[in-house]
Design a protein that fits this description.
It is a single chain. Strand 7 and strand 8 form a beta hairpin. This protein has a single domain, classed as Immunoglobulin-like, CATH 2.60.40.10. It has two helices and eight strands; from the N terminus they run E-E-E-H-E-E-E-H-E-E. By secondary structure, it is mainly beta. The relative contact order is 0.32.
């Protein structure tokens, strides 16, 4: 696949527990390319979901194998990922068609899934998509 991906850190973050990154998926080609739509719906009222919509979306993507995350500390040790059960089945929408030079931003609340510590730097690896349409990105992030 010809898509590229990079990890961006939105500005003005102050709490490790709420720390988030954006996976920016870009189509550098001259033709349209389809990729998995990250919009998997919203939690049902019966779920009594107490977390953000971004946490719900990421948890759904992870639980169905559409998103994989890994975080490694400065010493090279993997940070354990915390499971967030959704008890739901995703609503798969039609793929997103990225036109030439268009991009798609997928917000990922890392602090909800990993115990990050302020003042530390981590290596983050993300893979997103479904069979045949996956992108991966790696980068370093510093927690304020």
């Amino acid at each position: 696949m010809s898509l590229t991906a990079g990890i961006e850190v939105p500005p003005h973050q102050t709490a490790a527990r709420a720390f988030a990154v954006t996976l920016r998926i870009t189509n550098p080609t001259r033709r349209s390319i389809a990729i998995l739509n990250p919009d998997l719906g919203v939690p049902s009222a019966e779920m009594r979901w107490r977390r953000s919509q971004d946490v719900y979306r990421a948890a759904m993507l992870i639980s169905f194998g559409f998103l994989s995350l890994s975080v490694t500390g400065e010493a090279g040790r993997a940070v354990k990922q915390e499971a967030i059960p959704t008890w739901a089945t995703p609503v798969l929408r039609p793929p997103v068609e990225l036109g030439p030079r268009q991009s798609l931003a997928v917000d990922i609340p890392l602090g909800a899934f990993f115990r990050l510590r302020s003042g530390k730097t981590y290596r983050v690896a993300i893979t997103y998509g479904d069979r045949g349409r996956q992108v991966s990105a790696q980068g370093r992030v510093s927690i304020p």
